[in-house]
Design brief:
The complex is a heterodimer of chains A (239) and B (102). Chain A contains five helices and 16 strands. Chain A has helices at 2-18, 86-96, 150-154, 167-173, 225-234, and strands spanning 21-31, 36-46, 49-56, 60-65, 68-72, 76-80, 105-110, 115-121, 124-132, 135-143, 158-160, 176-184, 187-194, 199-205, 211-213, 216-222. In chain A, the strands form two sheets. Chain A has an eleven-stranded mixed β-sheet with strand order 7-8-9-10-1-2-3-4-5-6-11. A five-stranded antiparallel β-sheet of chain A has the order 12-13-14-16-15, covered by helices on one side. In chain A, strand 13 and strand 14 (199-205) form a beta hairpin. Chain A is globular. Chain B has helices at 5-19, 25-70, 90-98. The longest helix of chain B has 46 residues, at 25-70. Chain B is rod-shaped and about 115 Å long. Residues 64-80 of chain B have low confidence and may be disordered. The chains are: A alpha+beta (239), B mainly alpha (102). Chains A and B meet through strand 2 and strand 12 of A and helix 3 of B.
C-alpha cells in the first residue's frame, strides 16, 4: 500500500514537472499580392491539447482534445476534422524530417510547395512564417500569464460527438494545403491549393451537383487529375 | 511771363478740371489702395497655396482609404454576406477561417 502511494506520488510529480502549458495571444497575418488577412486569437495550451478563442475576423472557438477536434460559436462545440494552425504544421513537418524541437534560434524547413521558418527564443516559439509562392503567412505570439487554468476553461464547454457536415466532405479537406470558402448562388465554393501546390475549385450544394455525399452534392470544377482521383476516393465514387 | 500767385492758381485749376488730379489726400488713398491690393494679393496667394495643399492632402488621404478598401482584410467575407449563409455551411466556413492548412 505504501509502495503504491509512493508510486502515485512519483507519477503525479513527474506529470507536474514535465507538463507543458502556455497562455498566449496570437496574430496571424497572411499577405498575398493584393490582399491581407488578419486573425487574432487567444490560446490555452496544455500537453498538446488546445483551446483557441478566435476573436477576429469572427468569434469562433475550437478545441483539440487528444485526437479529437471540436468547433463552434457558443459553449456547445461540435466534432470537426483536424484543425491545424501554423504551430501544428511546423511541428508536423519538423517531426517528419526528424528535427528536434528543443532548439533555440531559427529553423527553416523547405518543402516542394512552401517553406516554413520558426523562431524560438528561451524555449518559446515567437514567430512562425510560411511562404508559398507569393503568399506569406506569419504567426506571432504574445505570451501572458492567465488567472484561469486550462482545465477551468475546458470545463465551461459542452462537447458534442457529432458533426453537421458528412465526414467524407471533411476528409476531402485533408487533401489540401489549405482552403478558402465562400457562399455564392446557393452553393459553397471552396477554393483550395492541393499538396502539390495546384489550384482546386469544388462546389458543395444541397440541391444539385456531380456526386452525392450524404445530404450534399459535390462538383469538382477545377483540379489536377491526381487530386480529382483522390477526392473521388474520399467520397467513395471512384470506380 | 511772370508766374505770380494768381497765374499759378489759374493753371492749377485748369489742370484740376482736365485730369481731375488733386494732390494730397487722393494720392494717399491711391497709394494706400495699391498697398491694400498688394496685401490682398498676398493673402489670396497664401489662401490659394493652403487650398492647393488641402486638396492634395485630401486626395492622398482618400486615395489611401480607397487602397485600404481595395484590400479587404477578411478575404472569406469578401463576396459573402455572412448573414445569408445557411447554418449547415457555417462549420466549413469557420474551419476555413481558423485553419492554416491540413
Amino acid at each position: 500500500m505504501k509502495k503504491l502511494f509512493l508510486l502515485s506520488l512519483f507519477v503525479i510529480f513527474t506529470i507536474t514537472l514535465f507538463s507543458f502549458s502556455y497562455h498566449a495571444y496570437r496574430f496571424t497575418i497572411e499577405y498575398t499580392k493584393d490582399r491581407q488577412y488578419v486573425r487574432y486569437e487567444e490560446v490555452y495550451y496544455k500537453d498538446g491539447d488546445k483551446i483557441v478563442f478566435v476573436k477576429s475576423p469572427k468569434k469562433i472557438i475550437w478545441v483539440k482534445l487528444g485526437d479529437k477536434y471540436y468547433i463552434g460559436t457558443s459553449n456547445e462545440l461540435k466534432l470537426c476534422p483536424p484543425i491545424k494552425d501554423l504551430e501544428d504544421i511546423f511541428f508536423e513537418y519538423a517531426n517528419f524530417h526528424g528535427i528536434s524541437l528543443d532548439f533555440d534560434g531559427e529553423i527553416t524547413i523547405s518543402e516542394k510547395a512552401f517553406t516554413l521558418k520558426a523562431l524560438k527564443i528561451d524555449g518559446w516559439i515567437r514567430e512562425i512564417i510560411r511562404k508559398f509562392e507569393s503568399v506569406v503567412t506569419e504567426m506571432r505570439y504574445i505570451y501572458t500569464p492567465s488567472i484561469y487554468t486550462f482545465d477551468e476553461i475546458l470545463s465551461k464547454f459542452k462537447f458534442v460527438d457529432e458533426s453537421d457536415v458528412p465526414e467524407a466532405i471533411y476528409n476531402i479537406f485533408n487533401l489540401f494545403l489549405w482552403f478558402n470558402a465562400e457562399y455564392v448562388d446557393d452553393a459553397l465554393k471552396v477554393y483550395a491549393v492541393d499538396k502539390n501546390g495546384d489550384n482546386v475549385l469544388i462546389e458543395i450544394s444541397d440541391k444539385v451537383g456531380e456526386y452525392k455525399v450524404g445530404d450534399y452534392y459535390l462538383t469538382i470544377l477545377e483540379s489536377s487529375e491526381k487530386t480529382r482521383e483522390d477526392i473521388l476516393n474520399e467520397i467513395g465514387n471512384n470506380n | 511771363m511772370k508766374f505770380d500767385d494768381e497765374f499759378y492758381t489759374k493753371v492749377i485749376s485748369v489742370f484740376e478740371r482736365r485730369i481731375s488730379y488733386n494732390p494730397g489726400s487722393l494720392l494717399e488713398e491711391k497709394i494706400i489702395g495699391l498697398i491694400k491690393r498688394k496685401k490682398r494679393f498676398n493673402i489670396t496667394k497664401i489662401a490659394a497655396v493652403i487650398a492647393i495643399a488641402a486638396v492634395l492632402a485630401s486626395i492622398l488621404i482618400f486615395n489611401n482609404i480607397n487602397t485600404v478598401n481595395q484590400r479587404p482584410l477578411f478575404t472569406s467575407y469578401e463576396n459573402t454576406d455572412i448573414q445569408n449563409i445557411p447554418k449547415k455551411y457555417e462549420p466549413i466556413i469557420n474551419i476555413s477561417l481558423v485553419s492554416d492548412g491540413f
